[in-house]
Amino acid sequence: MAKSIILVAGSPGAGKTTVLKEAGVSLDCKIVNMGTTMLEVGQKLGYVTDRDQIRYLSLKKFNEVRNKALDEIEKVAGNILIDTHASVGENGRYLPGFPVSFLNKLGHVKGLIYIDAPTKDIIERRSDDPSRKREHDDAHTIDAQRLINISMLSFASAYLNIPLYVVINRQDSLRKTVAEIKGRVHEVLGASD
Fold it and tell me: Taking CA atoms, which of 57, 71, 133, 167 is between 20 and 30 Å from 176?
């Protein structure tokens, strides 16, 4: 079977990483967290000490870190789900999570999944996560982030001519969301055989 990659993006706080951890147990895919990979690269370069500092890098350093992270991801064999972001925001500045150069370099991308959640759930999840240093965004800002993310994903879907799936991860619906993600992943991988 040829290598296939599915990019899984979501609004920060939508529960993307949690859903992927649960779904990954029974999927025939490796899950690679782009932010973690970028953190490892950024630390080696001496640019950051924690993951949340990545979004504050200059565009030049951000691109350098992302490209070196892609080099690491390209070494991973088999089917891959890349846990990533469609955009990276900081105080009203948004950087593309996967610009054309990223999509061209990565190759083998067969599908896009956007995990979202109701705005009120995102606000609650962000405030309940002490492990991250996120900005305290209001509902309007989160809705704007969602629009930017969907726009970026729609472009990538059209550019690569691949499907885009939107999965809503409602509060207290983890099992249902995980089942839907598994179904979408099997659908993408089955179509790429």
Answer: 133
